[in-house]
């Protein structure tokens, strides 16, 4: 892993997140279009011959970090063939990829404890690409925090997920990258919100539904006021914290939720990146460094 001199987490956009917490917009749920190249580490992941698209992040010259469920075929219990996975970087518009940098995946490294069950745990994967990722003002890595010793307060999530929020809305992926601010939800509050959501689900479905556990591998976040946050298609993307020096750190990987995006109390679960220092050390040259507060 890298030392503190590592060059990571630098946004090349001077535009700040347009926070409009009182407005509705059909994007990364209640988010807004991200300025071009504001998040140069963001990757768009597509699996050939399947309706699978996810987010990911560049963490070194040959590695994309994402969610394990993005590269796992739940139908047969195997990972997708590496050569069936394409990674696009250096772009915001997924419908116009001609100017994006394209990489083929050559190797998939998944947490050995990962299983496809809900809530997903150990939802962590590294994708090794077929040639070195060329850095530029459009393409660069994100930082990984060294420790999880603080409450993050406001965080940012970005991705190309669906425009709809519920089962009653057509689920169309966003053409361009969206961003949204979300609140860090402490574990105790997250558990209470989950319990309340499942109490309501019992009434909706007419049967008792036991709430799934929240483990130490999970980080909870969503916007308490608007419900803003990721939707299907945003999986694997980054939950980010910008420190006092302006660097962006990926504190979580978009994993899932117990409800539809935008539903009241449907807090989003993220895989804590701090739990994977050993995998990062053994398989990458990721920039793992201290946050400045």
From TrEMBL:
Keywords: Disulfide bond, Hydrolase, Protease, Serine protease. GO terms for biological process: proteolysis. Pfam families: Trypsin. This is Peptidase S1 domain-containing protein. Residues 28-285 form the Peptidase S1 domain. The keyword Hydrolase applies. GO terms for molecular function: serine-type endopeptidase activity. InterPro entries: Peptidase_S1_PA, Peptidase_S1_PA_chymotrypsin, Peptidase_S1A, Ser/Thr_Proteases_Immune/Dev, Trypsin_dom, TRYPSIN_HIS, TRYPSIN_SER. It comes from Aspergillus nanangensis. Signal peptide: none annotated.
């Amino acid at each position: 892993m890298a030392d503190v001199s590592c060059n990571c987490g630098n946004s090349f956009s001077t535009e700040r997140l347009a926070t409009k917490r009182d407005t509705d917009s059909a994007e990364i749920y209640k988010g807004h279009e991200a300025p071009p190249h504001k998040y140069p580490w963001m990757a768009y992941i597509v699996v050939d011959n399947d309706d699978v698209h996810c987010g990911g992040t560049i963490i070194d010259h040959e590695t994309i970090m994402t969610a394990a469920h993005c590269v796992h075929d739940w139908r047969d219990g195997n990972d997708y063939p590496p050569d069936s996975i394409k990674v696009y970087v250096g772009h915001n518009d997924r419908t116009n990829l001609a100017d994006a940098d394209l990489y083929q995946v050559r190797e998939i490294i998944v947490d050995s404890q990962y299983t496809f069950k809900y809530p997903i745990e150990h939802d962590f994967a590294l994708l090794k690409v077929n040639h070195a990722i060329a850095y530029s003002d459009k393409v660069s890595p994100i930082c990984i925090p060294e420790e999880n010793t603080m409450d993050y307060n406001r965080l940012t999530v970005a991705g190309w997920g669906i425009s709809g929020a519920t089962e009653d809305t057509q689920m169309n992926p966003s053409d361009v990258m969206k961003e949204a601010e979300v609140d860090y939800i402490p574990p105790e509050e997250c558990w209470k919100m989950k319990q309340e959501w499942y109490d309501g689900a019992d009434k909706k479905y007419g049967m008792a539904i036991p709430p799934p556990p929240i483990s130490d591998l999970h980080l909870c976040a969503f916007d308490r006021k608007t419900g803003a946050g990721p939707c299907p298609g945003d999986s694997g993307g980054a939950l980010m914290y910008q420190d006092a020096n302006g660097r962006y750190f990926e504190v979580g990987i978009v994993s899932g939720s117990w409800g539809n995006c935008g539903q009241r109390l449907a807090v989003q679960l993220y895989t804590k990146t701090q739990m994977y220092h050993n995998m990062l050390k053994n398989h990458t040259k990721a920039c793992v460094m201290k946050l400045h507060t």
